[in-house]
Design brief:
By secondary structure, this protein is an alpha/beta fold. The protein is about 30% helix and about 30% strand. The chain has a 6-stranded mixed sheet with strand order 2-3-1-4-11-5, with helices on both faces. Strand 2 and strand 3 form a beta hairpin. Bound molecules: adenosine-5'-triphosphate and magnesium ion.
C-alpha cells in the first residue's frame, strides 16, 4: 500500500507545531532526534524533514505529496501547488519598514528606493501592481540590519510584534500581506494518495474546530432558557438537563472561543450561574 509523503520544516518556527498537529491527529511519529525521514506506525504517512524554502519545489515535482509551510514561502516560490488548508499557526505579517526618523507619506515614498528582502518576488509583484519602480536587494537573512549597514533604504520582512524592527531603528509603514502556516499538495495526486489526504484533512479539521471552540456548561432559570439558547445555540441545539430545583436547569453547549467573551455578560444578565468553559480536543461537525 502506498504512503503519503509529507514534508515539514526540519528546524525552525514551524517544526514543533507541525509535528504537534500531526500527533493531535492521532498519528504516531517518533520525533526524537531529527532524522531526515520518519514513518508512522498507525497511519500510511512518511514524514520528511526539510528546509521550508525547498518544500514548494519538492511538492511541485512530486518528491513529496504534501507539505506544511508558511504561505509566504508558497507565494514567494511561485510553484504549481495546491493550497489545501490554512492551519491557524505561525501567523505573521510581511511588511515594509523604513528608518524611524523618515517621514512616510504613502507607497510612492519607495519610488527609486533600494529595499532589502528575502522575499523579492512578493515585493516585486506588490510594486508592479502599483506601477512603482524600486530596486530590490535580495538577501538571505538578517534583513533588519540592511539599512543600518548602508545596504538599503528600506526593508521588507516578516513582522510579528515589531520589536526586532524597533531594536534596529526601523518603523513599519505598510503591511503588504499576512501569512499563516498552510498545508499544500501536489496538483496530481493518485486516487490512493488523495484518499489518504482526505482522511488526514478530516482529522486536521476536527483538531482545528476543537481548538477554535469551547464546551460550555451553566445553570440557568428555566424561564430564561429561550434567550440563553439563542445566545449559545451550539452545534444543533443545546443539551438541557433538569436540576432538583424545578425552577432551574443545566444547559450544555458549544461556543466559538472568540464569541464566548461577547456573550458572557448577556448570559449573566439572563441569570446564568456556575458557568464552566472547558477545552475541546476534537470536534467533528
Ligand atoms: P529554514 O531553515 O527551514 O529555511 P527559515 O529561517 O526560513 O527556516 P523560520 O524563521 O523558521 O524560517 O520561519 C518559518 C516560517 O514561520 C516563516 O516562513 C513564516 O511563515 C513563519 N514566521 C517567521 N517568523 C515568524 C514570527 N516572528 N512570527 C510568526 N511566524 C513567523
Ligand atoms: Mg527558509
Amino acid at each position: 500500500m502506498s504512503k503519503l509523503k509529507i514534508a515539514i520544516q526540519k528546524s525552525g518556527r514551524l517544526s514543533e507545531k507541525s509535528i504537534k498537529l500531526i500527533q493531535e491527529c492521532g498519528i504516531k511519529v517518533s520525533n526524537g532526534e531529527r532524522k531526515l525521514k520518519s514513518e508512522s506506525s498507525n497511519f500510511p504517512i512518511e514524514i520528511l524533514f526539510l528546509r521550508d524554502d525547498d518544500i514548494p519545489q519538492y511538492v511541485e515535482q512530486g518528491v513529496v505529496d504534501i507539505g506544511i509551510l508558511g504561505e509566504n514561502e508558497v507565494w514567494e516560490k511561485e510553484k504549481n501547488v495546491t493550497v489545501v488548508s490554512k492551519l491557524g499557526f505561525a501567523n505573521c505579517k510581511l511588511s515594509l519598514a523604513i528608518p524611524k526618523d523618515e517621514i512616510y507619506t504613502d507607497s510612492s515614498y519607495f519610488s527609486g528606493k533600494r529595499i532589502a528582502t528575502s522575499y523579492p518576488n512578493i515585493l516585486q509583484r506588490y510594486f508592479d501592481a502599483k506601477n512603482i519602480t524600486v530596486e530590490i536587494e535580495e538577501i538571505g537573512g538578517s534583513v533588519e540590519i540592511a539599512t543600518g549597514i548602508g545596504l538599503a533604504d528600506a526593508v521588507f520582512d516578516i513582522v510579528s510584534t515589531g520589536s526586532t524592527l524597533l531594536m534596529n531603528g526601523l518603523k513599519e509603514v505598510e503591511v503588504v500581506t499576512k501569512s499563516e502556516a498552510v498545508l499544500i499538495s501536489n496538483t496530481k495526486l493518485s486516487n490512493e494518495k488523495q484518499e489518504i489526504l482526505d482522511r488526514l484533512l478530516f482529522r486536521i479539521n476536527a483538531v482545528k474546530n476543537g481548538s477554535d471552540h469551547k464546551y460550555i456548561l451553566l445553570n440557568c432559570p428555566v424561564k430564561a432558557l429561550d434567550q440563553i439558547t439563542q445566545l449559545i445555540p451550539g452545534m444543533k441545539s443545546p443539551t438541557i438537563l433538569p436540576l432538583a430545583n424545578k425552577e432551574w436547569c443545566s444547559l450544555h453547549s458549544v461556543v466559538k472561543e472568540d464569541e464566548f467573551w461577547d456573550v458572557i455578560d448577556q448570559l449573566k444578565a439572563h441569570g446564568a450561574e456556575g458557568i464552566l468553559v472547558v477545552p475541546i480536543e476534537k470536534m467533528v461537525l
